Amino acid sequence: MRRRLPLALAGLCAALLAGSVWAKLPAPSDEAKAKAAETAAKNAWNGKVAGYKLCKAQNAAAGVYYEKAKKEGRETKPPVDTAACVEPGPFVYTPPTMAASK
User: Fold this and answer.
1) pLDDT tens by residue, 57-68
2) pTM
3) 22, 28, 44, 53: least CB-packed within 10 angstroms?
C-alpha cells in the first residue's frame, strides 16, 4: 500500500494538471507582433554577420596555410575560387506598414 500511494498521488496530480494543457493563450497584441518581427529581422542580420566573420576567418586561415606551405616548399593544390565575403552592413529595420499587412 505504501508503494502505491506516491504513484496514486502522482497520477492524481497529472490528471488535475492535464486540463491546463488544453488552455489557449490569448492572441498576441500588435505591439508584440511588431517586436517579434523586429527580433526575427535582428536574428537574421546576426546570422549574416556571423557568416561574414566566418568567411573572413576561413580566408585568413587558408592564407596562412598557403604561405606556410610555400615557405616549406610543399606542393599544394591551387585554392578554389569562392564567392567574396560580403559585409552585411549596419542593422536597419523598417517595420511594415499596417495597410500593407492587411
Assistant:
1) 999 999 999 999
2) 0.66
3) 22
